[in-house]
Design brief:
CATH superfamily: Immunoglobulins
Shape: globular
Strand content: over 45%
Number of domains: 1
Number of helices: 0
């Protein structure tokens, strides 16, 4: 029986520190919107941190797309990851550099695993 991946956590933040001794993640600077003085605005660095479970054993592909129009989104990130077991919780740290926003608005985000939607959310950009 194939399991369908489940999202346990989705955060936009300034950074994630992984403690080499304990393996614990420390989340730094969680935020939910971006403010710009002039547009287009470029956000220099952010992390999309996510935890998933119920992922079938083996290799998988994560894709994150974004756009002002949910019908015309552009892929921002594609990366492989492996699941050791559907019982494992997998933490994925996705570093996003120099993300440009042409105008204020609600930017749609779509997170997919193996071309199947996992999360549809948005990121608010204001002036």
């Amino acid at each position: 029986m194939n399991s369908k991946p489940q999202l346990l956590c989705w955060l936009t933040c300034d950074g994630v520190h992984l403690d080499p001794g304990s393996g614990k993640h420390t989340i730094l600077g969680v935020f939910s919107n971006i403010k710009g003085q002039h547009f287009p605005v470029t956000h220099p660095f952010m992390v999309w941190f996510m935890t998933i479970t119920d992922c079938a054993t083996g290799p998988h592909k994560l894709r994150i797309s974004m756009g002002l129009d949910p019908q015309r989104m552009q892929p921002l990130l594609e990366r492989p990851f492996d699941s050791q077991s559907p019982l494992h919780r997998i933490n994925l740290i996705n570093e996003i550099r120099n993300l440009s926003f042409p105008a204020p608005g609600e930017y749609a985000l779509l997170v997919e695993i193996d071309d199947e939607p996992l999360l549809a959310t948005n990121l608010t950009v204001t002036n």
